[in-house]
Each structure stands twice: as C-alpha cells, then as structure tokens.
Write a structure and sequence with these properties.
By secondary structure, this protein is α/β, with parallel strands linked by helices. It folds into five domains: 4-196, 3-Layer(aba) Sandwich (Rossmann fold); 204-395, Rossmann fold, CATH 3.40.50; 400-511, Arc Repressor Mutant, subunit A; 522-597, DNA polymerase, domain 1 (Orthogonal Bundle), CATH 1.10.150; 609-675. It binds adenosine-5'-diphosphate and zinc ion (ZN).
Length: 676
C-alpha cells in the first residue's frame, strides 16, 4: 500500500490533510465500512479518491450529480489518475474509453449514476472489472423522507450484498434520523464506523441585514466584490432576471438562472460560471446542486431562505477552498409572511408543517440573533463554540433593550382588535394615528389607542418584525396575514416572562466594512497575471479554471514566487502531474522569461530530495567527463541513468553502471549516493 502522506502530495499536491480526512482515509483504505458526515467543503472527495489509489481494484463512486461527476473525473485526470464516468451525459467515445480502461485493468475510479444500478448487466460488469470498494456520495439521497430521495439509491444495498464489498458513504446532512436511515439502507445490518466532523466553516463570514432598499443593498455588496465569483439567491424567477440586469447595469458581469430557462441556457450559465473568473449568477434554489466550484468568493441571499438548513446549504457553496468568503442575507417582515404562508398553504401533513415552522423559526432566530451568529447557527447543529469574530454581530454587537413592555402593548393591540389586522394598522393604533380605517373600526376608542406614541413608526415596525421572528405573533393564512398571537407569547402577556430585542439600525445603514484583500497590493499584479495564464490554459483544454490550479495555489505562487521547478513542487496544490504539465508555463509568468531548460529526467525529480542528488551527480559527471586529469576520451551518463541512480541508491549502482562508467564515475558517485 502506498504511503498516504506521499500520495497526498504527489497526486493531489496537498501538504496536509484537512481535519478528519486522515482518519477517514485510513479506515476506508483498510476496507472498513464508513459513514462520514462532513460539511460541504470539508473535502470529502479526497476521502474516497485516496483510498481508491491505495487499494487494489476499482472503486465505484455513486453520485446523483452528473455535472459533479464529470468535474471530478476531469480533475482526477488532470492529476494523472485513471478515472471515468458512466452517465447519460457521456458521448459514445467517452463511454468506449471507460470500458476500454476498465477491461485493460487501468481504471482506478469509476463514477456511475444511480440509474445504472437498475440495469441488468451492471452488477456483473462491476464484479468482472474487479470492483473492490463502493463509495457513495450524497448518501442522504437514500432517505425516503429527505427532499433529495433517489429511489435508485436503494439498489446500492443490493450491490453491496451481491459483491460483498465495503461501503464508504458520505453526506453533509447532520440529523440523526437521516443518519440511521443511511445505516439501515446502505450497510444492510452491518454497523459502519461513523465519522462526524464539526459543522463550522470558519472561513465564511456571516451577516444579515434588514431589507431597506434591498436592490441597492445587493448592488453595493456585489460592487464591493467586483471581479470575484459570487451567487445571489432570490425568491422568485422574475427577480433573478431583474436583479441580474441591475447588476449588469452597474458594470458587473451577471447571468440569471432558474428552472424556467431551457436546459441549454442553463448549461451555458453553468459552464460560464465554472470557467470565467468573476461571474455573478443570480439564481433561484434551482442553482447549486451540481455546482462544484471551490472558489466562489461570496453568496448573497436577496430573500430569506425557507429554513436554517437551506440557509447553510446555500451560503455553504462559498469558500469551499477554505479561503475567506463573504455572505449576506437580507430579510424583512414580508419574507417572514411569505415563508409562513408557503408552509401553511403547502400540502404536507400537519406534523411536517409544524416541523417546517420550527426550521423557519430557527433561521429567524439567527436573523434576529442578539450575539455571535455562529454560536446560534452551530448551536442548532448541536455544537457549542466560542464567539467567532467573523460575523457582523461579533464585529459590532447590537444594542439591546428590554422589550417586555412594548411587546405587551403590541400583543394587547392585536387582541383588542380581535386579531384581524396586520402590522400597518396595529402600529397606527399604537402610535394613535386617526386614519380612515382606525375611525371606521372605532379603534380610536380602544384603551390601547396611542399608548405607544413615545416610539416612532419605524421602531414599532422593528418590534413587530422581531415579534414575528420570535414567533410571538404569526400571520394568519385564513385572514390575509392578520397577526395572531401564539402560545409562546402568553407568558409574556401575563408578565411571567421578559423579552430582549435589538435596537434596530433600520434607517441608519452602516457603510459596508472594507472587504479584506486576500493578497497584498504588492503581489496583486502577479496574481492577476497568473490567473490570466490559468484562464488561457483552462480555455484551451475546455476545463474549469480550478482544474488547472485553485485560487489558493495561485495565491501561494504569487506570494512565494517560486523560481524553479523544485520550488514550484513545494507549492500546495502542485502534484507531480500538474508540475509536469503546467509548472513551466506559470514559472514563465513569475520569472518574466522562459525558465532554464531542464532535462526531462531531472524534471521528474522536482521537489524531491533525489533532485538534489541528481544535481550533484550531474556536477561530478561534468567534472569527470574527460577523466581525473582531463585528458581521457569524453564519457557521460544520460539523464535517465542519473535519475535512476538518484532514486535507487548506492546498493543498486553496480547493476546500473557499465564497466567503463563504473571505472570513471563509480567512486565519486558512490560518495554522493552514500551522503544521500
Ligand atoms: P466536499 O466535501 O464539499 O465534497 P471537496 O471534496 O469538493 O468538498 O473539497 C473542497 C475543496 O477542498 C476542493 O477544492 C479540494 O481540492 C480542497 N481540498 C480537499 N482536501 C484538501 C487538503 N487536504 N488540502 C487542501 N485542499 C483540500
Ligand atoms: Zn460571531
């Protein structure tokens, strides 16, 4: 079995495992059954790709997302790994090539769509080509109650039983029920080792803002990040179109994306997003399932998502490369009304609706959090971290106030008007405004009329919004959104519980904090040049830019400015295959000229200790070319021989050198090889 650390560097170009990866790779490579729960961006693909290279035979990877499979296959091939995919998206040649590689025993990873498992010949085929491990991506698709259920995933259990193979299953879904279901359906009674990695994504900056000229809010957020790839999620299709146009109008590059566009147009946007630097996709939730772009630098939610899970999944698409990424979520009372209504009017059974309201409440609790947002978010997933220092509330803690009294006034206004009115009218009553509607209903005669006149309309709106977010009042679906008091509010009304709210910043928009630069000004021009080179190479090969090198790798290059292949090999993300293929081109950008030519044999040793030995052997050889006194007939060694010597060590030298070379170079070479 090949050493894991060495593989990590030579194939994937990484210096270290991410947290959790090492243990999972070890368990999977030893053929143990594994269920790993890793947050998006945690680096789960590596957890089955490495074991696939460490084990004999073929690893079958089952994944529901064709686009994602194709990306991974491309990335693996770029790293010099034999991988293929069998999906409905294949061309005939692609399929032929996969079969050929499989039949010749070259194939290491075979990605297949779950539908394939239903066809008769598949099990036999997989047995015949020597499948030795089943890796299941997005394993929660086996859960019948989840929203991503794929009936064909149930066939995986049969495959496991028929071929008697270990299973490594991966998901980012945290809840215990889904986990149990995965174990029951995929592992057929065997108990897998479970790896549960923390859900924190510390590189994601979290921020929420109350909607106040929301289009302007999104525009300024995007403008502050001009040139970076980002996604804006919207609640409706129409809004994706209008917002994309507005962004374009502001001089940014943007494209709308939603399920109403034809398939070709959607694919075109996906393709552009993968290959272009700095495109903004303005999308509905339809965008994302297949997006495997590690360098998305920001995500903005122009409307409130439907649950805390949906929130985290969407913002989680940013910054999968681990570099800083920004997120912003806008919300307001209309969002709360809309989401509640959506749940109430849905067809789900009552239990489910109750659960959906609870998940929405969790998100609203996050929106109206009184302290560090990450604590609230991770608290929901069962974790208990310290304040993060990377959210808007850590940056600027909100001013709080005891809202018990005004909340009781507001509740009383609801009740005395028979829970038949919305925020606007209730605020009129509280501040004592004699509108037509107020006089028409005689609400100016109520004892609550004008009791809240010490506060402005804006303040009252903020109080009602927070009451809705805390689920103290809910819009009634049968009465056009009239606010109804909930059970949670009863103790507050009775004076048994108090409530703390945030003093709102509504109306006084803070300027956006300055966006952190990922790189010093000094290195920025080089980074831009490296990116341009990357784009040219990616376009020439028709692959996404990050398949050539990730942002992280280019940033490190711009900072460290490697000046030789050896130095290049030390950059994170530069494995052997990419060194051979791309390093020269990028060195040329850094050095401003073509790098000195190196013998192909020496190139193969770049970044390794053997490279230094090769250099010393070469030096000695040049000295001794005409013998010790410089009078003999010239004699030299081919580069490939020097490389073999450097790799094989002193014991093998007699086998590698012929008599004449042994005589001339032997003693000196031996010294060098012994020194190592
Ligand atoms: P996910 O868990 O969401 O499937 P991926 O497997 O796509 O995550 O990995 C996310 C990103 O992290 C990819 O760009 C991948 O190359 C990178 N990555 C994974 N493991 C490491 C590592 N050990 N060191 C550096 N980068 C890594
Ligand atoms: Zn925080």
């Amino acid at each position: 079995m090949q050493d894991a650390g060495e593989l990590l560097k030579s194939v994937f170009g990484f210096d270290a495992f991410r947290p959790g990866q090492a243990e999972i790779v070890e368990a999977v490579s030893q053929g143990r059954d594994v269920l790993a729960i890793l947050p998006t961006g945690g680096g789960k693909s590596l957890c089955f790709q490495m074991p696939a290279l460490m084990r004999e035979g073929v690893t079958v990877v089952i994944s529901p997302l064709i686009a994602l499979m194709r990306d991974q296959v491309r990335a693996l091939k770029a790293a010099g790994v034999e991988a293929g995919a069998l999906t409905s998206g294949n061309t005939e040649e692609e399929t032929d090539e996969v079969y050929r590689a499989a039949n010749e025993g070259r194939l290491r990873l075979l990605y297949i769509a779950p539908e394939r498992l239903a066809s008769a010949g598949t099990f036999n085929f997989l047995r015949r080509i020597g499948t030795s491990l089943i890796a299941v991506d997005e394993a929660h698709c086996v859960s019948q109650w989840g929203h991503d259920f794929r009936p064909d995933y149930l066939k995986i259990g049969e495959l496991r039983a028929a071929l008697d193979l270990p299973v490594a299953a991966f998901t980012a879904t945290a809840d215990a029920e889904t986990r149990d279901e995965i174990v029951a359906r995929l592992f057929g009674g065997r108990t897998p080792e479970v790896f549960l990695r923390g859900f924190d994504r510390p590189n994601l900056a979290l921020a929420f803002k109350v909607k106040d000229q929301p289009r302007q809010q999104i525009l300024s957020f995007a403008l502050a990040r001009k040139g970076q790839s980002g996604i804006v999620y919207c609640g409706t299709r129409a809004k994706t179109e209008s917002l994309a146009a507005a962004l374009e109008g502001a001089g940014l590059t943007a494209a709308a994306y939603h399920a109403g566009l034809d398939a070709e147009r959607r694919r075109e946007v996906e393709r552009r997003f993968q290959t272009e630097d700095g495109l903004i996709v303005v999308a509905t939730v339809a965008f994302g399932m297949g997006v495997d772009k590690p360098d998305i630098r920001w995500v903005a939610q122009a409307d409130l998502p439907k649950s805390i899970e949906a929130y985290y999944q969407e913002i989680g698409r940013a910054g999968r490369d681990g570099l800083p990424a920004d997120t912003l979520t806008l919300y307001g009372p209309d969002d709360i009304r809309f989401r509640r209504q959506q749940i109430d009017e849905g067809l789900a059974p009552l239990d489910r609706k109750r659960a959906d309201h609870a998940r929405l409440n969790a998100l609203l609790g996050l929106a109206e959090a009184l302290g560090c947002r990450r604590q609230v978010l991770l608290g929901y997933f069962g974790e208990n971290p310290e304040p993060c220092g990377n959210c808007d509330l850590c940056a600027k803690p909100p001013e709080l106030f005891d809202a018990t009294e005004p909340v009781r006034m507001a509740l009383s206004a609801c009740l005395r008007t028979e829970e038949r009115f919305g925020v606007g009218h209730l605020v009129d009553v509280l501040v004592g405004r004699r509108t037509e509607k107020v006089t028409q209903w005689n609400h100016d005669a109520l004892p609550t009329f004008g009791v809240g006149k010490a506060r402005s309309t804006r303040e009252w709106q903020a109080i009602f919004r927070q009451m809705m977010a805390r689920d103290l009042v809910r819009p009634d679906p049968e009465r056009h959104g009239a606010l109804v008091m909930t059970e949670i509010a009863r103790p507050v009304l009775r004076g048994e519980e108090s409530v703390t709210f945030r003093k709102d910043a509504l109306g006084r928009q803070k300027p956006d904090p300055v966006v952190r630069a990922m790189i010093d000004d000094e290195d920025a021009p080089l980074l831009a040049a490296l990116k341009a080179k990357r784009r040219a190479l990616a376009e020439a090969q028709g692959v996404p830019a990050y398949v050539v090198f990730t942002d992280r790798t280019l940033i490190e290059m711009a900072q460290k400015r490697p000046d030789s292949l050896d130095a290049m090999a030390g950059i994170s993300g530069v494995g052997a295959a990419k060194l051979e293929r791309y390093a020269g081109a990028f060195l040329e950008v850094i050095l401003g000229e073509a790098p000195p030519a190196e013998h192909p044999a020496r190139r193969k040793l770049a970044g390794r200790a053997e490279g230094q030995i090769y250099d010393r052997l070469l030096e000695a050889q040049v000295e001794l070319m005409r013998g010790p006194d410089g009078l003999d007939k010239p004699l030299s060694c081919p580069g490939s021989l020097l490389r073999r010597l450097a790799e094989a060590g002193p014991e093998q030298m007699p086998r590698l050198l012929d008599e004449r070379r042994m005589e001339r170079f032997g003693p000196r070479f031996l010294e060098i090889l012994r020194e190592g």
